[in-house]
């Protein structure tokens, strides 16, 4: 039995989350749903009043299922790479922006202009300090970003807690709200801009009788549900200016990631106070049939990723000057391909950073070298929190000790001023 056979049956765990079931209500207060929009709030305070939007925006793009960083950014100069992957390796002569050690997967072509302009970079051999090959457990550990702590909050919620530019819409998840957003700070989740609505209402303000009556009905309630509904109605009303922004979804690839990033861009241009966004892209759990450099599962996923990110930054226009996007995945894949032309659960991975503050056009990280034993991993030489902390310090000025408690970051150098 191969490692693939032993692990494939358990990978359904990545599609469910204990926290997703809890929805944070027991730990963090009320959650209210209006249509397909979910707003959560702290248990002891009403919805925060909107203020001046943050002068920075961070978009966290999660590659769910454990993307193979050795395919995304290929260590072509490490001889073990080609020995370990006789069927699925990306040929050296097909790589983009190759330097003496690394090169980008050829499906990254849409992102080449950003690389050339110094607005895109990668950090290799990143990850958790100790290997964790369970999708469920690793996702939670990565998104809590406080291993060994009793904290039950996510790092993005802690970041929002340090933000002086508080808004009811400060944190917005497109799709499922990840563990990184859990905590006392109010956040919202929605499937799209048009899903932010109130059933039966034609406007998201008091001019609509349906909306006004709901607002009046819940205004005096001091229950958890009442506070949740007040927060939800207030957040939906505050989101209304976004709907006046042109919908540019048609300029993106016609897939879930393209539509999600279109919603993020529209919200940013609506200037309603959203400072942190989360978006998921999957599935990257390629235990079998990964494909080649020109076709198949990996090629298709990388194409979707690259075309969607490129469309996103083009769509943002002048607003791109305040937006930093970072990719993250729960862990990487094994170095050696398995008998099914796929890759089993590994350890180290690669992170991509794009946009404001990124010192791009360069590969960062300390390369540990690869081995070709059947259980060989890419070792982690840079704790992923050092990368995130550098983004936080460079873009927000927040205390990284608060956002990443108990952690001393190492310098990566990928962000300006760091």
Polypeptide structure, described:
With 418 residues, the chain is of the alpha/beta class. It has one domain. It has helices at 3-8, 18-22, 25-28, 69-72, 79-84, 112-116, 135-144, 155-161, 209-218, 224-239, 256-270, 297-316, 384-395, 400-403, and strands spanning 31-34, 37-40, 57-63, 73-74, 103-104, 120-127, 171-174, 187-190, 276-281, 323-328, 349-355, 362-364, 382-383. Strands 1, 2, 3, 6, 7, 8, 9, 10, 11, 12 and 13 form an eleven-stranded mixed beta sheet that branches. It has a two-stranded antiparallel sheet with strand order 4-5. A hairpin with a 2-residue loop joins strand 1 (31-34) and strand 2. Helix 9 (209-218) packs antiparallel against helix 10 (224-239). The longest helix has 20 residues, at 297-316. The radius of gyration is 21 Å and the shape is globular. The N and C termini lie far apart (47 Å). The model is unreliable at 1-29 and 42-50 (pLDDT under 50).
